[in-house]
Amino acid sequence: MPAISFSAFTKTVSPRLNFTPTRTLLYTRKMSTTPNAVIPQAKRMFDGATHKLDVWSIFTPANVPADCINLGQGFMNWAPPDWIRAESHGSMDHDIMTNHYSHPRGRPRLLKAISKHYSPQFENIVARGKDLTNEEILVTAGANCGMFAALTAHCAKPVFVPLHPPTGEGIKHGGDWTLNMDEFAAAFTPKTKAVIINTPHNPVGKVFTKEELEQIAKVCIENNVLVLADEVYDCMVYDGKKHFRIATLPGMWERTLTVGSGGKSFACTGWRVGWLIGPPQLTAATLAAHSRIVFCTNSPMQEAVAIGLEKAAEHKFFEEQVAAYEERRDILCSYFDQIGLSYTKPEGSYFLLVDISPVKVPEGYPIVETCKGRGKDFEFCWWLCQELKVVGIPPSEFYSEEHVNIGERFARFAFCKDPELLHAAGKRLLKLKEYL
C-alpha cells in the first residue's frame, strides 16, 4: 500500500458536511421574544439516522472534487431519445392547456398510453378482456411521490426486513440474495398495514422469481395487507430473466399498487413523472392524498412520457435499451474483475453492488464529519471520491439501523452512463489494487 500524506487535505468542503446535528427537543410550547428562537421538530425526526445529512447531499457534485466521475446517483449522462424530445417540445405550443394544471389523476393522453402499454403485462387484466381503466391508474409526481401518497393514505410507521447476501468469494448474482420468509412472516403484527417490495431491486439487482413472489403473496393475503410493488426498473431485466408482477398472482390484484416510472424508463429522471396501477378502491384513496401533496404532475412532461409509451415499440426502444445497459454493466464488471473485488452481478436495474471489505482505507485518513460513525462504506466512499476521483454510494444508507452491518461491506456504483465514462472511471478504479 503506498504511503500517503494527509497534510494536503486542506480543501474547503461545504459547511453542511462538517455540521454535527444537534437534538433540540422542546416538549412544551413557550412564548419567545428571541428573534432566532428554535422551532421544535417532530420527535420522529430524531429516530435512528433520520436527523443525519442524507447520502445524496454528502456525495452531490457540489461537495466532491470537480474532476470526479459520478457513478453514485442513478441518473444518465445522455438525453432522452430525440423522437420523444422533438415531439414533446411542441406540445406546449400546440395545446395551451399543457402549460396549466392537469387533472390530479393524470392527463388523458398519458392515462391512455399507460393503459395500452401495461394492460397486456397483467394476466388478470388480459383475462377479463378489458384494458386498464382510468380509475385503475394514477399519474404521480415521480414514483417516490406516488409511494409517499400511497403510504400517507394507508399506513404508518415502517418495519424493515432485509435481503441477506450470499456467503463465499467470487461473483454473485442478484438472485443469490434471499429473503428469509420466517423473518418476513414474523415481522407482521395486528397493526401491519402494508408491504413494500422492490423488484428489480435497487441496490442488489435481484429480480424476484415467481416462486418467491408467491411465498410473499401468501403471507400478505393471510395478514390482509396492502402491497406496494416498486417495479420502476421493470424494463431493465438482463440475461433472459423474466420480470414477474406480484399483482398478477391470485388474490393480489385487489390489494396491490404497482409503481412505475417514466424517468427510469426513458432516461429522463428530472421530469418526475411516475404512476400507480391498481384497483379503484386503492387508487382513489391515494389520489386524495396525492392531490393534497402536489395537486397534479408536471403537465408538459406527462405529454412527453405519453409519446414515449406510444412509440416505444415502433422504435424498438426497450429492446435496444436493455442491450445497451447489459453492455454497460459488463464494462464496469470487467474492471472489478481486474481489481479482484467480488460483486453482485445485477439481474435488473442499473446498479452494481461491490464487496469493498478487502479494501484497506489508509489508517487515519481524514473523513468529513457527516460520514464519521456511519460505517465503513461511508468512509470508503468519501476516501474514494477524494483520492481516486470516483463517486460511489454507501448502501448502508438504505438500511434501518439494526441492519446497517449488512450494507456497510459494499459500495454501489451506477452504470447508467455512456461507455466512455465507464471506461474512464474503471481506469481510475484499477488503483484500488494498491489498497488490497
* Low-pLDDT residue intervals, each spanning 5 or more residues: 1-12, 19-29
Mean pLDDT: 88
Q: Which percent band covers the strand fraction?
A: 5-15%
Radius of gyration: 23 Å
Secondary-structure content class: alpha/beta
Number of domains: 2
CATH homology-level superfamily of the largest domain = Type I PLP-dependent aspartate aminotransferase-like (Major domain)
The N- and C-terminal alpha carbons lie at a distance of 8 Å
- Helix/strand order, N-terminal first: HEHHHEHEEEHEHEEHEHHHEEHEHEH
Broad shape: globular
CATH architectural category of the largest domain: 3-Layer(aba) Sandwich
Main β-sheet, in a few words?
5 strands, mixed
The number of E-state strands comes to: 13
Q: Under the CATH scheme, which class of the largest domain?
A: Alpha Beta
Which strand order spans the largest sheet, edge to edge or round the barrel?
A: 2-9-8-7-6
The CATH topology of the largest domain corresponds to Aspartate Aminotransferase, domain 2
